[in-house]
Amino acid sequence: MRIKKLDWLVFKSFVGPFVLTFFIAQFVLVMQFLWKYVDDLVGKGLNTWVLMELMMYASARLVPLALPLAVLLASIMTYGSLGEHYELTAVKSTGVSLLRFMRALIITVVGISLFAFYFSNYVMPATNLKFGALLYDIRHQKPTMALKAGIFYNGLDGFFIRVDAKDDETNTLYNVTVYDHTSGKGNDHVITAEKGSMTQDDAAMALTLKLENGKQYKEIDPKDPGKNNYSMVYTSFTTWEKRFDLSQFKLSRTDENYFKDLKQMLDLKQLYGEIDTLKRDEVGIIKGLKDYNRTYYSVKKFGLDTIHAWSNMAKAKFVNTNDLLTEFDKTKKIQVMEIAMNRSRNIKNYIEVTTKQLEYKERELVMHYTEVYRKFTLSIACLVLFFIGAPLGSIIRKGGLGWPLFYCVLFFIIYHVSSIIGEKLAEGNSLTVFSGMWLSTFILTPVGLFLTLKANSDSKIYSPDFYVNVFRKVFKPSTQNT
Questions:
Q1: pTM for the structure as a whole
Q2: Pick from 134, 26, 48, 125: which is nearest to 374 by CA?
Q3: DSSP H helical ranges for 42-147
Q4: How far is residue 246's CA from residue 303's CA, in Å, rounded to a whole number?
């Protein structure tokens, strides 16, 4: 009964910090997402629901990354707080080891790891599909009011607009130049004005461009089609208006099936199916190359069998001849050499094309294997980081968000940077895909085991007094001599 209460105490101490740090990590990662994609979202006239939907998908995509971070920080905070309040010391004094004290949370973190794998394999593909389709639609939605001073704006089909200055408060435009390309004949209609304004009617889905005190120049096709002399009409105006239909700017949703075959949208079963297809394609390409080249190794393919018809040499003599072309006249010799050179060029071109195809298939295989291992590495990272965080917390014996946050950031940076480096090395074929994707795990697992074993044995290596005593012993003789 006492042991069960102890496990329940540790579990309750862990749940609160874990939930808190998970949502903090989610918030930080979502802010990073907004910072990255802010240019794609601003000026698109998106409604609140679309933004909320995009944020929901983005948050779901970040869950596998936030979970390891939350496990690491929560484990440091939990055991740091228990050590700070001497609860850890009291438990050890009863003969309960640190590993036994960690049993409840080990089971909990294993459950979190399994959830992370399930989420990565089943939820993430569907989330990536919806997120990718929605972000694609937003990126390709034309902005309605993205006019900036000194830059040509081409968001309205057939029109290019430039202003020297813009007053955002009054929505007034100064020194406006409009190029009307709706005729499809280039700059045959140019409008300039001292000032103007753009007003948008959301209800009518219309945008009105109003110009004041301006001029327009328009070319007119010549009456004689054989002549290139164009007439130009010049007019001045006090006011000029143009109304644009904005119904085409309304966000339209792309069919999600368009993205469903991308590797990020596939679960393990689908990924292995794609990998099997890619491998069979590689085998087919290599077989096709062998079959194509095999015919060129045949004498008859080169047309050299014509030597028998053109030469009066005996077969034995033919075999012993050093130069097979000596019996040909100049014309036939050139003909045979040209045929051989053309055949060689064909082989070279075919090999180059086939090599590029194989390189592409190999890159696709690497990317698919990367997605396969990613589903496992993110879940295993929760367990590895826990065995770093729990002993660290028992060592530093500090709760709160001070030192725990410092160590959390330190080890998470090591984990994240090594993961990125390993993935890039795998994509560049500097490492195998397995080694690259598991690089961070290979680096941090020994660290976690070392910390756990030392913390379990209460090693003095973590005590500041240990280093002070070592320092004194090293420099004590020199001090006496002086």
A1: 0.63
A2: 125
A3: 48-61, 63-84, 87-93, 98-101, 103-118, 124-139
A4: 68
CB 336 within 8 A of CB 328: yes
Residue ranges of the alpha helices (H) in 193-329?
Answer: 268-294, 299-302, 306-310, 315-320
Same domain, 206 and 307: no
The residue among 198, 178, 14, 27 whose CA lies nearest residue 111 is 14
> Which of 371, 399, 424 is at the close of a domain?
371
Answer whether residue 149 is part of any domain. no
430 and 455 together in one domain:
yes
| Number of independent structural domains in the chain | 3
**Residue 458: inside a domain, yes or no?**
yes
The encoded tokens of residue 466 equal 């240990």
Question: How buried is residue 66: exposed, middle or buried, by Cβ count under 10 Å (0-12/13-18/19+)?
Answer: buried
472 and 396 inside one domain: yes
Kindly state the tokens that stand for 68.
């390891």
Lowest mean pLDDT segment, chosen from 164-178, 233-247, 299-313, 334-348? 299-313
Does 238 share its domain with 328?
A: no
Cβ-contact 76, 406 below 8 angstroms = no
User: Same domain for 135 and 173?
Assistant: no
Digit-coded pLDDT (tens) for 439-452: 989 999 998 888 88
What does DSSP say about strands 206-220 and 189-201: parallel, antiparallel, or unpaired? antiparallel
284 and 324 together in one domain? yes
| Sign, Cα dihedral of 265, 271, 276, 279 | positive
Residue 192 tokens, joined:
């300039």
263 in any annotated domain? no
Q: Which domain holds residue 243?
A: 159-249
The pLDDT confidence band at residue 225, using thresholds 50, 70 and 90, is: low
Q: Which of 233, 249, 265 is the last residue of a domain?
A: 249
Three-state SS string over 321-389 comes to CCCCCCCCCHHHHHHHHHHHHHHHHHHHHHHHHHHHHHHHHHHHHHHHHHHHHHHHHHHHHHHHHHHHH
